[in-house]
Amino acid sequence: MRTTMTASHQELVRNAGTALDLDWALAAQANTSAIERRCAQLPGRRSVKKDHQAAWLLKAISLIDLTTLSGDDTAARVRRLCAKARQPVRAELLNALGFDGLHTGAVCVYHDMVETAVKALDGTGIPVAAVSTGFPAGLSPLPLRLAEIDASVDAGAQEIDIVISRRHVLGGDWQALYDEMKAFRAHSGDAHVKAILATGELGSLRNVARASRICMMAGADFIKTSTGKESVNATLPVSLVMIRAIRDYHARTGFYVGYKPAGGISKAKDALVYLSLIKEELGDRWLQPDLFRFGASSLLGDIERQLEHHITGAYSASNRHAMG
Ligand SMILES: O=C[C@H](O)COP(=O)(O)O
């Protein structure tokens, strides 16, 4: 029997946000040593049995925002990336595994590349995500950042990855963070918004928890760890803090907010650890592309190598799995 990777879940009600409840935001706790203890156990555990590993790796592919965010991006590179998003695994490998219809969760590019990606993905149902709002620093004037969102939406982006102003968090200006996020969401219209917290620049896990709560209250559809450009990007402790904030927000409001760890996730085995963390902390509903994505430029290549090994018993050279 062949298996397809189509989603079998009901469509979500989009997070509408809530009024700013500063007491709730500031009450967020993050016990660093308990968090680190919990995370230290994760990679060592055999969370996914060997027989199930290939299926989990295919699942991971369906959750990747296949990304290129380089100063030397070209239309040709973006078109090659889109071809990879449409067919992330060679047909003979997929056939051997009895799977059909696999594609990545999205393709993620800078604004200038949105149109090219939208054209290259026409008819596939794969959304294009644009990093807008002065990515990665988010330090251009607010009207320009809002205009960039408008332009990305006009160009056909269905997802907008915004960067928050870290200075609002570091200066404790929570109202400004809330207002900014609300404006980003309003300008995104029907496009879903992922709020990049740039957690490596927020100073503490407690700030990560607080910023997560504020962004969700202001209507973020996803919260995302990093741009991939900070010196520290996605980590398990930060992930635990953010997904527990998602869980608390869901318990409080009934809204489902998605999670996107991004930056530095390049190994299949690390992806499996993230998936088991999500399963344990949030449950299976969050293991669907509408609620979970990996932001990654090179993870797919390693997953393809591991799948090849699973099928043939041998690894091929990593240059056989080039991305762009
Ligand atoms: O949002 C995605 C990140 O920029 C990708 O980071 P990476 O190149 O370390 O995988």
TrEMBL record:
Annotated signal peptide: none
GO biological process: carbohydrate catabolic process; deoxyribonucleotide catabolic process
Reactions listed under catalytic activity: 2-deoxy-D-ribose 5-phosphate = D-glyceraldehyde 3-phosphate + acetaldehyde
Similarity field: Belongs to the DeoC/FbaB aldolase family. DeoC type 2 subfamily.
Known pathway: Carbohydrate degradation; 2-deoxy-D-ribose 1-phosphate degradation; D-glyceraldehyde 3-phosphate and acetaldehyde from 2-deoxy-alpha-D-ribose 1-phosphate: step 2/2
Name this polypeptide is given: Deoxyribose-phosphate aldolase
Keywords on record: Lyase, Schiff base
Highest taxon above the source species: Bacteria
